[in-house]
Amino acid sequence: DAGVTQSPTHLIKTRGQQVTLRCSPKSGHDTVSWYQQALGQGPQFIFQYYEEEERQRGNFPDRFSGHQFPNYSSELNVNALLLGDSALYLCASSLPTGRSGNTIYFGEGSWLTVV
Amino acid sequence: EDQVTQSPEALRLQEGESSSLNCSYTVSGLRGLFWYRQDPGKGPEFLFTLYSAGEEKEKERLKATLTKKESFLHITAPKPEDSATYLCAVQAGGSYIPTFGRGTSLIVHP
């Protein structure tokens, strides 16, 4: 049973550049969420995609955008990178919302360093 | 605003020295409370989901319990391989998005 897979695992970008991160959900899951985790912090919710639409969004600027494809995989795009965007970006998948307390499963993350 | 607070921030134990981690929450309408383990540089690994006060779940040396205001993760006779950061998260009210605490960093010395 394939878990959540993310790519790339590590990348370095220059301030002002754009980055795209990719995620394939766990088999059988159709809802994908993205989180940002800074060192020493818990994951912070960016947004969630279901049926190819952004379903819910956290407190992140419009520089953060995403997409979900018909096969449920997803991309996270960040434009105009800032030094403060350096973090571990986590993708998580789950069954559709509407189920009480449905568990989310995380991938291994993509480490982004902005220099 | 929902709050999830984990304590202690860091915990050092000797191998075999049992202890507990705490996750306290102030939310309305708890839907689920989750525990994850996170190794350095890795994504969180799911451990347990608890839905209602009084519920308990066990896995190897770990046991999670839930009351109306907090959850405990009990670690019995820990081993060095149990060293990790343990994250707690809650889903509550009208949102199905879990809110995470900052985690407890556990180090178990041989």
Overview of the molecule:
The complex is a heterodimer of chains A (115) and B (110). Chain A is mainly β and 115 residues long. Chain A has no helices and eleven strands. In chain A, strands 2, 4, 5, 6, 9, 10 and 11 form a seven-stranded mixed sheet that branches. In chain A, strands 1-3-8-7 form a four-stranded antiparallel sheet, with no helix packed on it. Chain A starts with a strand and ends with a strand. The relative contact order of chain A is 0.32. With 110 residues, chain B is mostly beta strands. Helices cover 0% and strands 59% of the residues of chain B. Chain B has no helices and eleven strands. Chain B has strands spanning 3-7, 10-14, 19-26, 30-38, 45-50, 56-59, 62-66, 70-75, 84-92, 99-100, 104-109. In chain B, the strands form two sheets. In chain B, strands 2, 4, 5, 9, 10 and 11 form a six-stranded mixed sheet that branches. The model of chain B has no long low-confidence stretch (mean pLDDT 94). The interface between A and B is medium-sized, with 27 and 26 residues.
